[in-house]
C-alpha cells in the first residue's frame, strides 16, 4: 500500500508558487493573443494571417510545454507520479524561401505576391559594382554609388541564436511588413481628404484633386500618407513606401547640441539634427538628411565669383564630370552655437559632395547675423542638370525630404548650391517645389547675399541625389506600386498644373482609343552645357563652351525611319479588345518639359530604346505599358523595368538587335496593345 505523503507548509508554499506561475502564463498567453489580433488587424493581408496563425500555434505549443512542466512540478510537490511524455520541444519548421525568376514581361497580377514576399532577388546584386546609366552629355558616372554590402544574417550566431525569435523577428523572417510607427498609424477617417473627391474608380491619385491653396499649404507627408502600401512583401513598404519615410524619421540623431537654453534673446539656441539611414542596396556608411535651427551660412564662395569660376573651369577640363560642379566651402561657411558630437560629425556620415558641409562647420559663440531668413529652406546640390533620370534623383529626394520633415511648399525656399545653370527641367524647381519664393541658383545666391552672414531659423541640407531609392537598377525589383513613386508622380503633375490633362480628372473618354508613343532617341544639335550657358546670370561661361560640337548620343536606332513606319501601321490593325491605335513619333528634345509631361499623360504604350527619357513612363495612365528596346548591350540595365514596376505599370523589355527587327518589335507592341485593360480610359 502506497504511503501517503504529508503536505508540509514548505511543500504548500512551493505548490502556491507554481500555481501563481501557471496563472501568470495564462495571462501572458491572453496578452499574446490580443497583441497578435492587433497586429493581424493592422497588417490586414493574407500572408500576415498565415504567419500569425503559425506564430499562435508555436506559442500555444510553448504554453502547453510550460504547463506540462508546471504540472510535473505540482505532482512532485504533492508526491504524485509524473508523466514522462513531455513534448520534445522541437522547433516548428518554417516554410522555405522560394526564388523568383527574372522576367521581362511584368503584365501580371498579384497571384504570386505571396511567394515574392519571401523572395530576395536583390541578393544577386550583393557586393556588385553597378554600371550607372550614362548621362546624355557623355559624362562618366562615379563608380562608388552602386556597390551593395554583404547581406547581414537575420539573427546573430552563438547562444543567442538558440532562443525562440520574438514576434518582430518572426515577422521579419517571414517577410511581413509592420505598419507600427505612431507617426504614420493614422486612422483613415483622420487622414487629410483632397478638396475634391476623385471620380469613381480612380484610386491613389488624391494629390491631383487638391486645389491650389491646399496643394501648397498641406505638408508633403500628409499628401503622401493616404497612398496605398507598396506591394511585394518583404521590405518593399519599408524601402519604397510610407515605411521609408518612417525609417528616415526613426534615424534622427542630434549631431550638434545647443549650448544655450534660449533664455537670452540675443543668443538663440543652435541645433543640428541629422538622419543617417542605410537604405537597402546602398553602400557606404548611409545616406543623410540634416535639419538645423538657428544656424549661419556664408556664401562668399559664390559672391566673389573667382571660386565658382575656377570650379567651372575644372568641370570643363574634366569633360563635364559632375563631381567638379561642387565647390569645397571654406571653413565657417556653416557656423552654429552648438557642440558637434565627434562620433557623428564626420565627413563619412555626409555622403558625396555633402561632405563639404561637414568640413566647413565651425562652432561660434555669436552668430553675428547680417540677415535673418525665417522661411524653411532646403539646400540642394544637384547631381546634374540636363539628364531627366539623374535630375529626378534630386527631385525624388527633395520630395522625400519634405515628407520626412513634414514641410509644405507654401513658404519653402530652395537654394541650389552647385554651379550648374537652370537647365531644361527648371520647371521642377520653379513651379513644382516653389511656393511664394523663387528657387535660387548659386550665382543668384551670390548676387542676393554677397559675403553677408545669413542666419536661418530653419534650414535642411538635402539628401544626395545618388541616394534616391529609384536609382537601384542592377536587378529586377519585386516591389510593385510604390506609394512614394506614385505620389511623387502625382505631385509633379499637380505642381505643373496639369491635373486637368490627366485622364483621371475627366474619365469620360472612349477607353478604346489607345495612344502608342515612340520616344525617339536622336542626336541633338547642341550640348546642354552650350544650350543653357549664360555668361550673365550663371557660372557657365558660354565663351568656354564654344569648342563643343554636335551632341552625339549612344543607343540610337539605326533604322529609325523603318521603325516609325512599322509602328504607324498599327493604326490600321484590328485588335480583339477593340483598341483603336493612334501613333505618335515624339522627340522630347524639341519639347518643353511641360509639353513632355502632357504627352506622357496621353500615352498608353510607350516605346523606346534604353535612355533617360524612359523615366517618363511614371507619368502614363495606370493602364500604361512600357516597351523598352535593349539595344547596344543595354538590356542588363534595369532602371526602367524597376521604375515601371514601382509605378504599377506593365513592362516588356529585353535584348534587341540594332538595326531593330521591325517584325519582332511590331509583334511585341501589338501584344502590349492587345493586353491593355480597356474597361476604363486610364
Automatic annotation (TrEMBL):
Keyword Cell wall biogenesis/degradation belongs to the record: no
Disordered: annotated span: 79-200
Pfam families: Glyco_transf_61
Major enzyme class: transferase
Molecular function terms, GO-annotated: protein O-acetylglucosaminyltransferase activity
Low complexity bias locations: 155-164
Glycosyltransferase 61 catalytic domain segment(s): 553-623
InterPro entries with a match to the protein in the record: Glyco_transf_61_cat, Glycosyltransferase_61
Amino acid composition bias (Basic and acidic residues), ranges on this chain: 89-101, 138-147
Keywords: Endoplasmic reticulum, Glycoprotein, Glycosyltransferase, Membrane, Signal, Transferase, Transmembrane, Transmembrane helix
Ranges of biased composition (kind: Acidic residues): 102-124
Transmembrane segments: 12-36
Documented EC number(s): 2.4.1.255
Swiss-Prot/TrEMBL catalytic activity: L-threonyl-[protein] + UDP-N-acetyl-alpha-D-glucosamine = 3-O-(N-acetyl-beta-D-glucosaminyl)-L-threonyl-[protein] + UDP + H(+); L-seryl-[protein] + UDP-N-acetyl-alpha-D-glucosamine = 3-O-(N-acetyl-beta-D-glucosaminyl)-L-seryl-[protein] + UDP + H(+)
Entry protein name: EGF domain-specific O-linked N-acetylglucosamine transferase
Amino acid at each position: 500500500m502506497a504511503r501517503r505523503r504529508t503536505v508540509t507548509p514548505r511543500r504548500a508554499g512551493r505548490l502556491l508558487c507554481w500555481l501563481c506561475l501557471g496563472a501568470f502564463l495564462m495571462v501572458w498567453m491572453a496578452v499574446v493573443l490580443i497583441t497578435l489580433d492587433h497586429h493581424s488587424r493592422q497588417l490586414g493581408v493574407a500572408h500576415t494571417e498565415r504567419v500569425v496563425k503559425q506564430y499562435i500555434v508555436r506559442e500555444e505549443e510553448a504554453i502547453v510545454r510550460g504547463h506540462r512542466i508546471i504540472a510535473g512540478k505540482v505532482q512532485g510537490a504533492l508526491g504524485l507520479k509524473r508523466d514522462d511524455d513531455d513534448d520534445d520541444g522541437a522547433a516548428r519548421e518554417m516554410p522555405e524561401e522560394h526564388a523568383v525568376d527574372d522576367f521581362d514581361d511584368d503584365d501580371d497580377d498579384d497571384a504570386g505576391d505571396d511567394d515574392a514576399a519571401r523572395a530576395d532577388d536583390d541578393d544577386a546584386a550583393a557586393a556588385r559594382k553597378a554600371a550607372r546609366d550614362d548621362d546624355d552629355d557623355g559624362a562618366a558616372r562615379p563608380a562608388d554609388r552602386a556597390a551593395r554590402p554583404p547581406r547581414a544574417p537575420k539573427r546573430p550566431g552563438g547562444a543567442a541564436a538558440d532562443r525562440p525569435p520574438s514576434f518582430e523577428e518572426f515577422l521579419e523572417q517571414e517577410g511581413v511588413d509592420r505598419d507600427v510607427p505612431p507617426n504614420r498609424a493614422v486612422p483613415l477617417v483622420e487622414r487629410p481628404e483632397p478638396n475634391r473627391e476623385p471620380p469613381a474608380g480612380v484610386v491613389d491619385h488624391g494629390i491631383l484633386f487638391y486645389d491650389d491653396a491646399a496643394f501648397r499649404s498641406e505638408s508633403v507627408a500628409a499628401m503622401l500618407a493616404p497612398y496605398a502600401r507598396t506591394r511585394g512583401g518583404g521590405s518593399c513598404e519599408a524601402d519604397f513606401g510610407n515605411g521609408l519615410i518612417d525609417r528616415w524619421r526613426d534615424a534622427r540623431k542630434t549631431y550638434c547640441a545647443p549650448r544655450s537654453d534660449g533664455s537670452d534673446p540675443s543668443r538663440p539656441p543652435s541645433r543640428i539634427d541629422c538622419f543617417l539611414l542605410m537604405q537597402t542596396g546602398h553602400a557606404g556608411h548611409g545616406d543623410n538628411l540634416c535639419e538645423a535651427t538657428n544656424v549661419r551660412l556664408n556664401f562668399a564662395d559664390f559672391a566673389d565669383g573667382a571660386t565658382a569660376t575656377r570650379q567651372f573651369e575644372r568641370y570643363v577640363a574634366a569633360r563635364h564630370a559632375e563631381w567638379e560642379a561642387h565647390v569645397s566651402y571654406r571653413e565657417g561657411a556653416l557656423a552654429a552655437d552648438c557642440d558637434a558630437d565627434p562620433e557623428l560629425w564626420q565627413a563619412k556620415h555626409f555622403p558625396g559632395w555633402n561632405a563639404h558641409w561637414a568640413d566647413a562647420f565651425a562652432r561660434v559663440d555669436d552668430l553675428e547675423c547680417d540677415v535673418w531668413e525665417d522661411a524653411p529652406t532646403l539646400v540642394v546640390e544637384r547631381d546634374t542638370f540636363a539628364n531627366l533620370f539623374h535630375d529626378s534623383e534630386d527631385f525624388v529626394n527633395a520630395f522625400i525630404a519634405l515628407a520626412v520633415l513634414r514641410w509644405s511648399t507654401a513658404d519653402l525656399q530652395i537654394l541650389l548650391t552647385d554651379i550648374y545653370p537652370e537647365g531644361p527641367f527648371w520647371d521642377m524647381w520653379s513651379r513644382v517645389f516653389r511656393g511664394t519664393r523663387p528657387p535660387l541658383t548659386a550665382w543668384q545666391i551670390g548676387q542676393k547675399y554677397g559675403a553677408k552672414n545669413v542666419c536661418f531659423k530653419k534650414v535642411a541640407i538635402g539628401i544626395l541625389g545618388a541616394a534616391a531609392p529609384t536609382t537601384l537598377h542592377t536587378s529586377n525589383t519585386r516591389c510593385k506600386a510604390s506609394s512614394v513613386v506614385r505620389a511623387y508622380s502625382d505631385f509633379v503633375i499637380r505642381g505643373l498644373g496639369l491635373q486637368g490633362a490627366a485622364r483621371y480628372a475627366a474619365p469620360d473618354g472612349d477607353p478604346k482609343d489607345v495612344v502608342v508613343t515612340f520616344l525617339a532617341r536622336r542626336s541633338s544639335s547642341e550640348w546642354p552645357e552650350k544650350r543653357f550657358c549664360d555668361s550673365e546670370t550663371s557660372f557657365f561661361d558660354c565663351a568656354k563652351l564654344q569648342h563643343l560640337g554636335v551632341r552625339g548620343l549612344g543607343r540610337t536606332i539605326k533604322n529609325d525611319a523603318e521603325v516609325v513606319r512599322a509602328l504607324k501601321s498599327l493604326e490600321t490593325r484590328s485588335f480583339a479588345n477593340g483598341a483603336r491605335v493612334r501613333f505618335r513619333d515624339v522627340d522630347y528634345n524639341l519639347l518643353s518639359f511641360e509639353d513632355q509631361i502632357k504627352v506622357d499623360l496621353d500615352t498608353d504604350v510607350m516605346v523606346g530604346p534604353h535612355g533617360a527619357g524612359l523615366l517618363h513612363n511614371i507619368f502614363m495612365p495606370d493602364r500604361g505599358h512600357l516597351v523598352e528596346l535593349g539595344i547596344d548591350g543595354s538590356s542588363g540595365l534595369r532602371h526602367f523595368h524597376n521604375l515601371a514596376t514601382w509605378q504599377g505599370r506593365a513592362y516588356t523589355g529585353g535584348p534587341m538587335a540594332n538595326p531593330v527587327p521591325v517584325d519582332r518589335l511590331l509583334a511585341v507592341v501589338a501584344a502590349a496593345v492587345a493586353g491593355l485593360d480597356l474597361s476604363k480610359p486610364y
